[in-house]
C-alpha cells in the first residue's frame, strides 16, 4: 500500500509539473462547457432583419411592431425597393428581409388573402431555417388574432408541448455531450499518453524489472486519472447547474455511479490504446481520431442518430459515448432511474470488461 | 569459481515467430565477477538480458539468477537484481531526491532507510546543489551516475547494465567504470552489455554473441591470445567475419 501511495504521488508530480496536461485537465473542461453553452447554440437572438413594405398600412404596421417586439429579431433597416434586397444581403448586415406586397390590408380585407415574402440569407442554412420558422409563427399568431371573432368550420388545433426541455435550450443538449467528450479526453487520452510516455522514456522497463507487478503499475498510473476525471465531472455538473440552470431531476448517486462507470470504460480504452501504440504521438493520434471524432460525430451528441444513414447507425452502437449520453440525459433531464437505464448501463459494463480483457491479453503478448 | 556461480544459463532460447533472437546459449557467471556481454547491435544481447531480469519469458531452456528460476520465480529474481538501461531511465520531471524516493519506495524500502540512503548517495556523488533540481536539467553523465546509484538502492546481489555508457564522452565512461569496479569490490556481480570493445578489456570475462549464439567466452587476455591479436576489437572483428 505504501509503495502504491508513492507511485500515485509520483504520478501527480508528472501531472502538476506539466503545463500542457494541467491545461487539458482543468482548463479544457471549463472552456469547452462555456463554449458549447454560450457560443454554440441553435437558438436565435436579436437577429438583424430588414423590412420592405410596399403598402405601409395598418396591418403591416401591426405585424412589424409584433416582430420588432420579439426578442428574436431587431429591425435594422427599411428598404425602398426590390433591388436593395440583394445589396443588403451582400453587405452581410442583415439575415432576412420581410417583403410585404402592395395593398396588403386591402387584399386582406377584400380577397381574404395577402402575401408576405420571407427572404433569408441561407449561407447559414440552420439559422435561415430557424428565422423562417420563427417569423412564420409570429405571422400565424397575428392571423389568429385577426380571426378571433370568426369561426371556421373545420379546424385542426395543433398544440405543441416540449417535454423535459420546454424552452428548447440547446445547452441542455450540449452539457451531456461535452461532459462525455471531456471524460473521454481526460480518461482515455491522458492515460494512454502517460503510459506510453513511460514506455518512450524507458522507465516502464525499470518499473517492470522492479518487484511491482504489471497490473500494479497500470493501476498506479490509472488511479490519479480516475480522481481527476471525477473532479472534472463534478465541475461540469456544477457549471451546468449554476451557470446554465440545467436541472438534475434524477438521483445524484446514480449519476455519480454511472459517471464512474463511464470513466472506467474510458480508462480501459486508454490502457488498450497504450498497449498498441509505441509512442506518445501515436497514442494521441489514435485517441483523437479513434475516440474523439466518433464521440463528437456518431454518439448522437450533435447529429441525431436516427437521421444517420443505416451503416453509421450500426457503427454508433459500438461507441460507449452513445450510451452514456442517453444515461446522462435520462438522469439529468427526465429524472429516470436504473429501471429505465439498465440496458445502457449493462452495455457500458460489458464494453468495459471487454476492453480490460483485451488489454490484459495484449499486455501479456508483449511480455512474452 | 564453480561453487560461487550466481547466474546459471542452460540452453536458453528465445524465438519471435520464425526468428531466433537467442539461440541455445549456456554460460555461468561467478559471484563478484564483472561479466561483459558483448555483441553487435541485433546480436541478441538485450533479448538475452531481458530473459535474465525476468521481463521476457524464455521460449526454451533454463536460467537461474541469484538462485531463483527466471521462469517460475521471476518476482524473487527481480528483488535480487538491479537494472540500469541504456537510456539511464529516470523521471525527468522529478528532482534527484524525488526519483530516489520513488524508486526506493517501489522496492519497498522503509522511509527512514530511503532518507539515509538518498543522503549517502547525494554525498557520495557530490550532488548537494543539484539534489532538488529536476533530473531533466542534468547533463547525461550525471544522469548516468544517478541512474546507476538508483539501481543499487535496494542492495541487489547482481547489477545488470544494458549498454550503460551509450552516448557519454570517454572521460565520463572511464569514471563510470571506476564506479562499477567499486561495486564489484564490494562483492556485487556486474553483468554488463556493451558494444564498445575497449570496455571489454575492463571485464573479468567476456562473452561475444554473434547472431544469437555465444561464439566466444573467456577472459580478455585468453581471447586475445587465442585469436593472436592485440585488442578485443580485433577479436570481435575476427569472430564476426568468420560467421559471415
TrEMBL record, chain A:
- Which terms does the record give in the GO molecular function aspect? ABC-type transporter activity
Species whose genome carries this gene: Pricia antarctica
Q: Name one GO cellular component term.
A: plasma membrane
Family annotation (PROSITE patterns)? ABC_TM2
Query: Which keywords belong to this entry?
Result: Cell membrane, Membrane, Transmembrane, Transmembrane helix, Transport
UniProt protein name: ABC-2 type transport system permease protein
Checking Gene3D superfamilies in the record gives: abc type-2 transporter like domain
- Predominant location of this chain? membrane
Automatic annotation (TrEMBL), chain B:
Q: Which Gene3D superfamilies match?
A: P-loop containing nucleotide triphosphate hydrolases
This chain belongs to the protein called ABC-2 type transport system ATP-binding protein
Location within or outside the cell: Membrane
Tell me what organism the protein belongs to: Pricia antarctica
Q: How does it sit in the membrane?
A: Multi-pass membrane protein
Cross-referenced Pfam families, in alphabetical order? ABC_tran (PF00005)
Alphabetized InterPro entries for the sequence: AAA+_ATPase (IPR003593), ABC_transporter-like_ATP-bd (IPR003439), P-loop_NTPase (IPR027417)
| UniProt domain ABC transporter: residue ranges | 7-236
Q: Which GO terms describe its molecular function?
A: ATP binding; ATP hydrolysis activity
For this record, the Gene Ontology CC terms, alphabetical, are: membrane
> What keywords tag this UniProt record?
ATP-binding, Membrane, Nucleotide-binding, Transmembrane, Transmembrane helix, Transport
Q: Which domain of life is it from?
A: Bacteria
Amino acid at each position: 500500500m505504501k509503495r502504491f501511495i508513492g507511485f500515485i504521488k509520483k504520478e501527480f508530480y508528472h501531472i502538476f509539473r506539466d503545463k500542457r496536461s494541467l491545461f487539458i485537465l482543468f482548463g479544457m473542461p471549463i472552456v469547452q462547457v462555456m463554449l458549447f453553452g454560450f457560443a454554440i447554440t441553435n437558438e436565435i437572438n436579436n437577429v438583424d432583419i430588414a423590412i420592405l413594405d410596399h403598402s405601409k398600412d395598418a396591418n403591416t404596421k401591426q405585424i412589424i411592431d409584433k416582430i420588432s417586439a420579439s426578442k428574436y429579431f431587431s429591425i435594422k433597416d427599411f428598404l425602398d425597393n426590390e433591388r436593395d434586397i440583394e445589396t443588403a444581403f451582400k453587405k452581410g448586415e442583415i439575415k432576412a428581409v420581410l417583403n410585404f406586397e402592395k395593398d396588403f390590408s386591402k387584399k386582406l380585407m377584400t380577397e381574404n388573402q395577402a402575401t408576405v415574402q420571407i427572404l433569408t440569407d441561407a449561407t447559414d442554412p440552420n439559422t435561415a431555417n430557424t428565422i423562417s420558422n420563427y417569423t412564420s409563427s409570429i405571422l400565424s399568431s397575428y392571423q389568429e388574432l385577426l380571426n378571433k371573432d370568426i369561426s371556421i368550420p373545420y379546424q385542426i388545433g395543433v398544440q405543441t408541448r416540449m417535454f423535459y426541455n420546454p424552452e428548447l435550450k440547446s445547452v441542455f443538449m450540449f452539457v451531456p455531450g461535452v461532459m462525455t467528450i471531456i471524460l473521454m479526453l481526460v480518461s482515455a487520452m491522458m492515460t494512454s499518453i502517460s503510459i506510453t510516455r513511460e514506455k518512450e522514456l524507458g522507465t516502464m522497463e525499470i518499473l517492470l524489472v522492479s518487484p511491482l507487478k504489471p497490473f500494479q503499475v497500470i493501476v498506479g498510473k490509472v488511479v490519479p486519472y480516475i480522481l481527476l476525471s471525477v473532479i472534472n465531472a463534478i465541475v461540469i455538473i456544477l457549471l451546468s447547474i449554476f451557470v446554465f440552470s440545467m436541472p438534475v431531476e434524477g438521483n445524484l448517486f446514480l449519476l455519480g455511479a454511472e459517471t464512474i462507470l463511464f470513466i472506467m470504460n474510458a480508462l480501459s480504452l486508454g490502457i488498450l490504446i497504450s498497449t498498441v501504440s509505441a509512442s506518445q504521438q501515436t497514442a494521441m493520434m489514435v485517441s483523437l481520431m479513434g475516440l474523439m471524432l466518433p464521440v463528437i460525430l456518431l454518439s448522437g451528441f450533435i447529429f441525431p442518430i436516427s437521421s444517420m444513414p443505416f451503416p453509421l447507425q450500426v457503427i454508433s452502437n459500438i461507441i460507449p459515448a452513445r450510451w452514456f449520453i442517453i444515461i446522462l440525459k435520462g438522469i439529468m433531464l427526465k429524472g429516470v432511474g436504473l429501471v429505465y437505464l439498465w440496458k445502457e448501463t449493462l452495455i457500458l459494463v460489458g464494453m468495459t470488461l471487454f476492453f480490460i480483457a483485451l488489454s490484459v491479453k495484449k499486455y501479456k503478448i508483449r511480455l512474452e | 569459481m564453480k561453487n560461487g556461480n550466481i547466474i546459471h544459463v542452460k540452453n536458453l532460447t528465445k524465438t519471435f515467430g520464425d526468428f531466433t533472437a537467442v539461440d541455445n546459449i549456456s554460460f555461468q557467471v561467478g559471484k563478484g565477477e564483472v561479466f561483459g556481454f558483448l555483441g553487435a547491435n541485433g546480436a541478441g544481447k538485450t533479448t538475452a538480458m531481458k530473459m535474465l531480469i525476468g521481463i521476457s519469458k524464455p521460449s526454451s531452456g533454463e536460467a537461474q539468477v541469484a538462485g531463483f528460476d527466471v521462469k517460475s520465480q521471476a518476482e524473487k529474481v527481480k528483488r535480487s537484481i538491479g537494472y540500469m538501461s541504456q537510456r539511464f531511465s529516470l523521471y525527468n520531471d522529478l528532482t534527484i531526491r524525488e526519483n530516489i524516493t520513488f524508486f526506493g519506495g517501489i522496492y519497498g524500502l522503509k522511509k527512514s532507510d530511503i532518507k539515509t540512503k538518498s543522503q549517502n548517495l547525494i554525498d557520495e556523488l557530490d550532488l548537494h546543489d543539484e539534489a532538488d533540481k529536476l533530473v531533466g536539467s542534468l547533463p547525461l553523465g550525471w544522469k548516468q551516475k544517478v541512474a546507476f546509484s538508483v539501481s543499487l538502492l535496494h542492495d541487489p546481489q547482481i547489477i545488470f547494465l544494458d549498454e550503460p555508457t551509450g552516448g557519454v564522452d570517454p572521460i565520463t565512461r572511464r569514471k563510470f567504470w571506476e564506479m562499477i569496479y567499486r561495486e564489484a569490490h564490494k562483492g556485487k556481480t556486474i553483468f554488463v552489455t556493451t558494444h564498445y570493445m575497449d570496455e571489454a578489456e575492463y571485464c573479468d570475462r567476456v562473452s561475444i554473441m554473434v547472431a544469437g549464439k555465444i561464439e566466444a567466452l573467456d577472459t580478455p587476455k585468453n581471447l586475445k591470445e587465442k585469436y593472436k591479436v592485440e585488442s578485443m576489437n580485433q577479436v570481435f572483428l575476427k569472430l564476426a567475419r568468420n560467421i559471415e
